[in-house]
């Protein structure tokens, strides 16, 4: 999702389907109940409200979902949108993870502090967990055109010279 700097740091994509949204029915501290969530899955990652707050579905009942929001929920209102991602809450692994400092949902604290100019994490901030611009030594395995790769197969390694760590790079399951 794109970052929009100013009053709100992130916004929903215009192209997202209406069917991917539910709507807030109730807010009680960090817990939100949303309706219109038919087809959602337990532990699915969702984005709540206009600030795209990160949350996770912890209970399903009919077309209602109970969501644990991992950010401050002040300002959320009834009928605010809840966007389904169809993905579980997960972390990204790869070169660059060591030596970085993250919060509990793998947001890089140093990067956020630089971009926001504040030591506090702004609501709904969306920052890649790992730096995609840094170049790492990459050694592909002997894989030929037409070879079948499936989830979990090792296809390359990356050596981080300053740390002497060898990262295995595998196909996502």
Using the coordinates above, name the CATH class of the domain at 18-88: Mainly Beta
Oligomer: single chain
- Largest beta-sheet characterization: 6 strands, antiparallel, barrel
* Principal-axes shape call: flat
The residue-averaged pLDDT reads: 84
GO molecular function, one term: ATP binding
Protein name: ATPase F1/V1/A1 complex alpha/beta subunit N-terminal domain-containing protein
Family: Belongs to the ATPase alpha/beta chains family.
Domain ATPase F1/V1/A1 complex alpha/beta subunit N-terminal: 25-85
Brief write-up:
With 173 residues, the protein is mostly beta strands. The protein has one helix spanning 109-116; strands at residues 21-28, 31-35, 44-48, 53-61, 64-69, 81-88, 137-140, 154-160, 165-170. It has one helix and nine strands; from the N terminus they run ββββββαβββ.
